[in-house]
User: Which sequence fits this backbone?
């Protein structure tokens, strides 16, 4: 999700290791009081050269919304199928 977000919004390509680092350092499932930032380097897709940019925790929250919604839905379905005891 983070890789796709960066590609869509920054026109840059990052690897899985970079996406994991972003998720661990500033990722969150809920908006916080403090907006955290991280400097990232990726390959600009239009020019093919390295490019640096800054991502913030609100952007990562937006990027993670779809997968998080899917997880919550799956948990709710599983709980609905559990017997009451």
Assistant:
């Amino acid at each position: 999700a983070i890789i796709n977000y960066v590609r869509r919004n920054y026109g840059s390509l990052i690897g899985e290791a970079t996406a994991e680092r972003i998720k661990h350092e500033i990722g969150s499932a809920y908006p916080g009081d403090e907006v955290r930032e991280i400097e990232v380097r990726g390959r600009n897709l239009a020019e093919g050269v390295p490019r640096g940019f800054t991502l913030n925790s609100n952007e990562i929250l937006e990027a993670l919304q779809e997968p998080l919604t899917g997880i919550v839905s799956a948990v709710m379905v599983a709980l609905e199928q559990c017997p009451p005891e």
Q: What stands out?
A: The first helix runs from residue 2 to 10. The helical segments are 2-10, 16-26, 57-81. The chain is about 55% helix and 20% strand. The radius of gyration is 16 Å.
